[in-house]
């Protein structure tokens, strides 16, 4: 029987390395291509290399080439594109794209969805009054919301005034067959980085203020000072690039630890690099539902994270007392890292706990199933 595919237009600020963007890749790759057609529209461009992570042939890319500051021309460009492509669903994500829902309403796109994935450094925990006003105004143009975390759900309901029946809680999922414990690929490490019996802490993410990697760097420096006998065995891998790279590199050299800290930059082999780590750390100022935490747990890495956003929802219950730390509390993070210096066997024990917890609760199939149900219910 002949049937029309559901055409979803995804509006994204920039389609490049990032947790939100990786979630879109996973979703598109797993939704049935016989039932869906996708258009990805960016405000500020896309990475050709990152786009290659999408393996289906039912996706088109368009860039609105937004200028810095207020650029109303993007609304007219988007209107023209919508009129031409006639999407069934307009799906925006986070504050940077929410205003484009006006164009969707203007063009009478039948179904309009907005997702809240996490907080920006200018809107920690949704406290920015300007953005609150924007969200309250925009809710009349949005039919359904997706909240990735309980924090986001409560914020939309209690602060923005969205009816709970209009919010669907969909947690991110991870491919537990791609991210899984494997033999460490030591050949990927820089020369002279690896030593016998080393303990490797690691993190993955944009080097941006909201991700707060300098907090981890300072805690790692403090760790080497607290355990002088084990200092030469301690290592830190920082995967990602961004505005903080130069500052962090300089600090590593100042501390005399440049040979023990590897700034790996942006990588396409994160699944392999995670198998070089013993413990994963997410030091963010704010988070939604972190894809990198899920990927680390699927890899069997114990995760130490700041107690913000959706992070507490992800950590295994029995590890929360020792693996959730206060933001920018150097002593707390250093102590949490130190438990693995004090008890080397702890890594193997906790590795099994986090892997089982992840497989049981955060399957990517569950995430895709919920999005599929949402899209089908709206267009059915």
From TrEMBL:
<dbReference type="Pfam" id="PF13439">
    <property type="entry name" value="Glyco_transf_4"/>
</dbReference>
<keyword id="KW-0808">Transferase</keyword>
<dbReference type="InterPro" id="IPR028098">
    <property type="entry name" value="Glyco_trans_4-like_N"/>
</dbReference>
<feature type="domain" description="Glycosyltransferase subfamily 4-like N-terminal">
    <location>
        <begin position="18"/>
        <end position="177"/>
    </location>
</feature>
<protein>
    <submittedName>
        <fullName>Sugar transferase, PEP-CTERM/EpsH1 system associated</fullName>
    </submittedName>
</protein>
<dbReference type="InterPro" id="IPR017522">
    <property type="entry name" value="Sugar_tfrase_PEP-CTERM_Stp2"/>
</dbReference>
<dbReference type="Pfam" id="PF13692">
    <property type="entry name" value="Glyco_trans_1_4"/>
</dbReference>
<dbReference type="GO" id="GO:0016757">
    <property type="term" value="F:glycosyltransferase activity"/>
</dbReference>
């Amino acid at each position: 029987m002949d049937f029309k595919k559901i055409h979803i237009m995804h509006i994204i600020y920039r389609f490049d390395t990032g947790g939100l963007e990786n979630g879109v890749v996973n979703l598109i790759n797993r939704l049935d291509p016989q039932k869906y057609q996708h258009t990805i529209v960016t405000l500020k461009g896309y990475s050709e290399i990152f786009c290659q992570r999408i393996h289906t042939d039912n996706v088109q890319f368009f860039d609105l080439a937004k200028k810095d500051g207020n650029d109303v021309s993007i609304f007219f460009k988007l209107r023209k594109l919508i009129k031409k492509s006639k999407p069934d669903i307009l799906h925006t994500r986070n504050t940077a794209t929410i205003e484009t829902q006006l164009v969707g309403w203007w063009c009478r796109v039948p179904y309009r969805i907005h997702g809240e994935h996490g907080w920006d450094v200018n809107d920690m925990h949704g406290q920015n009054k300007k953005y609150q006003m924007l969200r309250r105004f925009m809710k009349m143009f949005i039919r359904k919301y997706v909240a990735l975390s309980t924090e986001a759900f409560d914020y939309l309901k209690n602060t923005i005034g969205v009816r709970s029946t209009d919010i669907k809680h969909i947690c991110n999922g991870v491919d537990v067959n791609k991210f899984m414990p494997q033999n460490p690929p030591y050949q990927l490490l820089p020369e002279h980085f690896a030593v016998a019996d080393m303990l490797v802490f690691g993190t993955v993410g944009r080097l941006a203020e909201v991700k707060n990697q300098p907090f981890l760097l300072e805690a790692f420096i403090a760790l080497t000072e607290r355990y002088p006998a084990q200092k030469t065995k301690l290592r830190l891998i920082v995967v990602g690039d961004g505005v903080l790279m130069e500052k962090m590199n300089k600090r590593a050299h100042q501390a005399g630890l440049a040979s023990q800290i590897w700034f790996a930059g942006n990588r396409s082999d994160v699944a392999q690099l995670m198998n070089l780590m013993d413990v994963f750390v997410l030091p963010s100022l704010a988070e939604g539902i972190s894809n990198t935490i899920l990927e680390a747990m699927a890899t069997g890495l114990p995760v130490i994270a700041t107690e913000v956003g959706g992070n507490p929802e992800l950590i295994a219950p029995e590890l929360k007392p020792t693996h959730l730390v206060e933001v920018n509390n150097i002593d707390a993070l250093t102590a949490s890292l130190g438990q693995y210096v004090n008890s080397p066997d702890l890594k193997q024990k906790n590795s099994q706990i986090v892997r089982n917890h992840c497989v049981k609760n955060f399957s990517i199939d569950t995430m895709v199933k919920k999005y599929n149900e949402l899209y089908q219910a709206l267009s059915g």
